Amino acid sequence: MSETIRHHRACHLCEAICGLTIETRDEQILSIKGDPQDTFSRGHICPKAVALQDIQNDPDRLRHPMRRIGNEWQAIEWDEAFTLVAERLAEIRERHGNNAVAVYQGNPSVHNYGLMTHSNYFLGQLKTRNRFSATSVDQLPHHLTSLMMYGHGLLIPISDIDHTDFMLILGGNPLASNGSIMTVPDVEKRLKALQARGGKLVVVDPRRSETAAIADQHLFVCPGEDAALLFGLLNTLFDEGLTRTGHLPVDGLDELRAAVAPFSAESMSSRCGVPAEQIRQLARDFAAADSAVCYGRMGVSTQAFGTLCQWLVQSINLVTGNLDRAGGALCTEPAVDLVANTSGGHFNRWQSRVSGLPEYGGELPVSALAEEMLTEGDGQIRAMVTVAGNPVLSTPNGRQLEQALDGLEFMVCVDFYINETTRYADLILPPTAPLEHDHYDTTFNVFAVRNVTRFNESVLAKPVGALHDWEIFVGLAKAFASRIGAELKPTMAPDQMIDRALRAGPYGDNSELTLSVDRLRDYPHGLDLGALKPNLARRLKTANQRVQAAPSLFVNDVARFAAAAAVQPDQLVLIGRRHVRSNNSWMHNYHRLVKGKSRHQLLMNPTDLSRLGLLDGQRVRVRSRVGMIEVEVAVSDEMMRGVVSLPHGWGHGRPGVQLDIASRQPGASANDLTDERQLDVLSGNAALNGVPVWVEAA
């Protein structure tokens, strides 16, 4: 009888990176369970981890390069595929210039270290300014705020959830997301431990989310108006003398005070929907706690004042003395230190051709992608490379993007599936499955609530004829360099790169731990490097090594906030929704994750349902400026009046999609309603929350 082998590694399907125990026999997965010896997740897993087996065995997952001939797909060899990509992209660049080729990188890129280490080995050769990613439909305001205040876009203070006495969450639902820009496995136990030690959890959300349901206090807030609440809180802290001097060197506190002075709790109450006395009391409670932290996540970034929201979140932590303080917001010191080893980033060095939207870190806002394809003229996008992304379902106005993709001269996708986006490709290049390659979490250790590290060995053998994602980019890079006559620098495997970074890092050759990849192999359950500690003062990357409390970019945007029009009475507005069994658009093809009752209905408050003459469970039409969908409506007292909620990532009923399970319960795409013209104009981030919609019987 064959031997049963036990493996230990982290799940990489979301940001929590929970430790797993995986048993295999003869390259078959027997079981996937939480690892109780994992130093970070302590045995916790969510349903997504078990779906790693479904990904491995999914008959719809591509195993070979596929070329589209008309409406049919044919397998081709790797070398032929690389040559085809190099020839077509080089030829299009020669006719139309470098910017005629665009790149889109999806969220899974940061979950696969081979993409992090090697994608630019090829993509950098394209020398295009038309680069896009999921960052600008998610977290761009976080990075821009840290760049302007602390000098580096990845120097993001993390909530010290295990030691705080008061946690204020806005626009986040960690019980569904497992934490986000806050790597926090087993988050429910951590939040309940906060409450058990006498602390308080307050959640601000237009929906009584899973996290709000366990909170000590939940406040409804009008979608898109979190900035009004935050202005009211910060104004109260100054007005009532509730600020606390911290140890950090800071510039601009007087300018910050002046910027928020016009926005009292009383004046902000009507905009955000929270009574003025509740705003003031929340500010008092926050300031009175021995330690407190304000955490704002995707819900406050994906709105018209997303960057102002993130600035105000950081400012509340700063002026109460909770920035860079135990129990407040602290920066990690990871074993692979991206802050120390990368440039801080840059902003607005160039703009998009059509709408003039600003770049950040070499990427343009993805809301501009479709118009850059559809608008004729010099610099028009005519070819596309997508990497682990499905922008038709994950970016605003997906129907417009479909039209744009259909008109491209050439498109190549690095992806597992023929999905809503890749069906337009001429060529799809599928990498090995997650358990067939090793992995190191370069990104999520930067955002973790403890300093942790682990090296994840592959669980299953690499299939004959398959290529890892990094090997695909090496193949593309060599073919393209040969085609254009460029010299290509040598490279090395990702584990060798990580080994060098570990040795050069704070726990490497010059420390007692002497970390390396080989050393981490001695810690299959992960290695805990300790609690987060104050370190921001010595890690600041600003020009004068001082916190910039009032960057002029942000202060100047306050006038736009002050002049914004209020939402019209009786106008329904749309927000998104997370679920623990889902992750964006790509996890709906696994039976374990979609079984049971459907979870893609439009949620509506019972008063709104009655006012519109609708019935629970009825099919309805939902319209916005850009499109219309049909979906089932579900009554929910979780919802604030005037607000409806639809999860993103659904909409699998499009022709040509080859996702059998997902196509049987397709749902509707929220991004057929979101508007590419609704933006945080400061950063260019998409405003996916607070979209005006109209609902009627279908």
From TrEMBL:
Give the Gene Ontology MF terms in alphabetical order: 4 iron, 4 sulfur cluster binding; metal ion binding; molybdopterin cofactor binding; oxidoreductase activity
**Keyword Heme belongs to the record:** no
UniProt entry keywords in alphabetical sequence: 4Fe-4S, Iron, Iron-sulfur, Metal-binding, Oxidoreductase
Q: Name one GO cellular component term.
A: oxidoreductase complex
Which GO terms are recorded in the biological process aspect for this UniProt protein? Answer: cellular respiration
Transmembrane region(s): none
What Pfam families does this protein map onto?
Answer: Molybdop_Fe4S4, Molybdopterin, Molydop_binding
Boundaries of every 4Fe-4S Mo/W bis-MGD-type domain copy: 4-60
Per its record, how is this protein called by name?
Molybdopterin oxidoreductase family protein
* Biological source species: Stutzerimonas zhaodongensis
